[in-house]
Amino acid sequence: MQNIPLRLMLCAxxxxxxxxxxxSADDWVAQIKVSHGVVAIQRDNRSLPGEIxxxxxxxxxxxxxxxxxxxxxFNDNSMLSLGANSEVVLRRYSYDPTTYIGAFDAVVxxxxxxxxxxxxxxxxxxxxxLSTPDAELQAGKPGSYAISVEGR
Length: 152
Fold this sequence. Notes:
Elements: H1 3-25, E1 30-36, E2 39-43, E3 46-49, E4 55-56, E5 61-64, E6 69-74, E7 79-82, E8 87-95, E9 102-116, H2 119-123, E10 128-131, E11 136-138, E12 144-149
Parallel strand pairs: 9-10
Antiparallel strand pairs: 1-4, 1-6, 2-3, 2-5, 5-8, 6-7, 7-9, 8-9, 9-12, 10-11
């Protein structure tokens, strides 16, 4: 009978460990809501199909081919849409749904992208940044923005 508290504590540690491992495995930041044509997600040296419902993670690279497009919604309700022949790296994304504090950094390597800001920008004007090879857009205030990187 003396081993019951020890066994309960051991079970609790195992359950907490499993939950922490599960949380890190499901550490997604956005989800694809619309996908047309050939869309790929490059993650950990693998190429995954960019299909509707696919969850995205920090450092994912989203690539569209000719006649393709994709739209995704982030955890803070920001939206990012890519047109044909586009490539975007989700460099950094963090978000606290209680305080709305976070950071959204993406790199537009080529193509056309439109973004609608979400809760992150409503809490902190400089929390969202989109970079291109030649420029950087810092949202500054809630709204919608379009970026085009040609000739890349």
